[in-house]
Design brief:
CATH architecture: 2-Layer Sandwich
Distance between the termini: 43 Å
Radius of gyration: 18 Å
Number of strands: 12
Oligomer: single chain
Mean pLDDT: 94
CATH class: Alpha Beta
Structural class: alpha+beta
């Protein structure tokens, strides 16, 4: 049986700016989600290093809390789920199908983990693991209205097969992922994680994807393309010159310490065009 309790709740909360466990309120959930996306970056370095992505709680804690790393949805949303449980939230894990950037009507694999939270009879979705477009606030599930967050507005559409999350990007509503409320077990996450981290068709195994949020900004890194997106301003973009600049950028802009792995630098060099 895998561990379901956090090993170091106090340290986790301190990284998020809490000296003591906060009460399980909507304001707490809002603060936790916003701070989490700023402290823990989204990144897929392990898949590029061809290392197994371990999604048991002790492994995630070691990677995020001790090794100065980030992760993707099966890691970030798992540890966040455990945190919410520890704080007394009524929460359960659900999954979705990412359709961002896909042709209209695309039906992708069920490879995204997020959380459903009940608070005072109201249902919210909470997600800290959706890369460069992660919602930075919990979203009302049973509402079709536009919902403001500290970053872009979002809305949720309900349909026969569940729900679709949309984000308003450059004045246009774009679909992010389709999801439903079907019960999930650890084996469901294991299968999705295996596909995402090992399947040759998975973008996670073929390109570098890093993201982090902050006060009024998002930073993204896709292979050698680095961008800063500031609310109300045009995005700033530049190409990374070489792997040394890339490694420095991971540390300075995303707070990621590159893991020691024999072939990772060579892989990153190839991705920025300097193999």
């Amino acid at each position: 049986m895998s561990e379901t309790r956090l090993g170091n709740l106090a340290h986790y909360l301190q990284l998020l700016g809490f000296e003591a466990p906060p009460a399980p309120t909507l304001e707490t959930l809002r603060q936790l989600q916003l701070r989490h996306t700023g402290v823990f970056p989204f990144e897929n370095l392990a898949t590029l290093a061809r290392e197994p992505v371990l999604i048991d709680l002790p492994s995630i804690e070691r990677k995020l809390l001790q090794e100065q790393r980030g992760g993707y949805c099966y890691e970030l949303n798992h540890i966040f789920f455990a945190l919410l449980q520890e704080l007394g939230f009524d929460v359960r894990g659900i999954t979705g199908r990412v359709v961002m950037g896909q042709p209209e009507g695309a039906w992708t694999a069920r490879t995204h983990r997020l959380s459903l939270v009940h608070l005072d009879g109201v249902r919210y979705i909470s997600d800290v693991g959706f890369g460069g477009m992660v919602p930075t606030a919990p979203l009302l599930l049973d509402s079709t209205a536009e919902q403001a967050t500290p970053h872009e507005p979002y809305r949720i559409a309900q349909h026969e097969d569940g729900f679709t999350l949309y984000a308003k990007v450059a004045g246009e509503w774009r679909p992010m992922y389709i999801f439903d409320l079907q019960r999930q077990e650890e084996v469901d996450y294991a299968v999705g994680n295996w596909y995402v981290s090992t399947h040759p068709d998975s973008s996670f195994a073929r390109q570098l994807m890093v993201a982090r949020t902050g006060d009024g900004w998002r930073r993204t890194l896709n292979n050698g393309s680095f961008a800063i997106h500031r609310l109300g301003y045009d995005s700033e973009r530049r190409e990374v010159a070489d792997v040394e600049e890339l490694v420095a950028l991971l540390q300075s802009e995303f707070g990621i310490r590159l893991p020691a792995h024999a072939g990772l630098r060579q892989t990153l060099a190839r991705l920025v065009g300097n193999a």
